[in-house]
Design a protein that fits this description.
By secondary structure, the chain is of the alpha/beta class. The chain contains eleven helices and nine strands. The chain is globular, with a radius of gyration of 19 Å. It binds adenosine monophosphate (AMP).
């Protein structure tokens, strides 16, 4: 696996691969790699000649300085994981100045309102930061295909919108959520949980499964109330939000209309660790 730490050397390498007609799949990450990331690489390896990844903890998408500071970083371990996975041909580990030549600030995007729902309400500026770094990475890496996890479903939909609006020549693919054995969505943040908290957090997935059972059987307000009740009884957990939204518009619904696809979205704080999850309802 090739490791690139500067824009220039990576650019030269990419140009050579493109001249040889190689199809490139790309999955950007913030490191602290786990099996969820590997599932993106695995999907990319099936549809491309070469798989590229990047590791960059993007400061502009953190609205909370403590969260940015506490974000787990372990490049040495990440490189081992990448080598062992055998899916990734090249990894880009840029400097801040490679992605932000004019200083660390976000562009301002109009994602047709998608950016104002859910995470947009609780993490102001988050999607401007995500858009800025993903746009720059896609321009630099020039992949044919790019892979994003459904774990961050709103991010996936927003990146599809970004690519559509900017007419970037890349196809965006969503990859199913990879879960721990107990059902908890795998996340770099899970490392900050104690063993007991990690086990207790399976309640998030179990709740989503229950919501799926209740889908189109009881009303949306009734489901919302039951979810609230579940988390009121959990010590050390605070439900930040739960909502059922239309998969296309991401707007919260209070009724299940025919012909629409719905997804349940949830964010729970387990002490100070913010855990996010979602599930398509059927
Ligand atoms: P991150 O490093 O957290 O920014 O994530 C990088 C990419 O991996 C994003 O597209 C995430 O949605 C995706 N990802 C993270 N965790 C998972 C997971 N458990 N299953 C599937 N994709 C994931």
């Amino acid at each position: 696996m090739k490791i690139f730490k500067s824009k220039k050397t990576f650019h030269d390498y990419i140009e050579r691969q493109r001249e040889m007609g190689k199809k490139i799949g790309f999955a950007p990450t913030m490191g602290a790699l786990h099996q969820g990331h590997i599932s993106l690489y695995e999907a990319a390896s099936k549809e491309n000649d070469l798989v590229f990844s990047s590791i960059f903890v993007n400061p502009t998408q953190f609205n909370n300085a403590a969260d940015l500071e506490k974000y787990p970083r372990n490049i040495e371990n990440d490189l081992k994981i990448l080598e062992n996975s055998d899916y990734v041909d090249a990894v880009y580990i840029p400097e801040v100045s490679d992605l932000y030549p004019d200083g660390l600030k976000s562009k301002s995007y109009d994602f047709d309102g998608l950016e104002n729902e859910m995470e947009g309400k609780f993490r102001p500026g988050h999607f401007d930061g995500v858009g800025t770094v993903v746009e720059e990475l896609l321009l630099q890496v020039q992949p044919d295909n790019a892979y994003f996890g459904e774990k961050d479903f709103q991010q996936l939909v927003i990146i599809e919108k970004l690519v559509e609006k900017l007419k970037l020549p890349v196809k965006i693919h969503g990859v199913a959520i990879y879960r721990e054995k107990n059902g908890l969505a795998m996340s770099s943040r899970n490392e900050r949980l104690s063993a007991e908290q990690r086990e207790a957090s399976k309640i998030i997935y179990e709740t989503l499964l229950k919501v799926n059972d209740w889908f189109r059987i009881i009303t949306v307000p009734e489901i919302n109330q039951r979810v609230k009740d579940i988390f009121e009884d959990q010590r050390g957990m605070v439900l930040e939000y739960f909502e059922i939204s239309d998969e296309q518009t991401l707007k919260e619904t209070d009724f299940f209309y025919k012909g629409h696809n719905y997804r349940a979205f949830i964010v729970v704080f387990v002490n100070e660790v913010r855990l996010i999850d979602n599930m398509h309802l059927e």
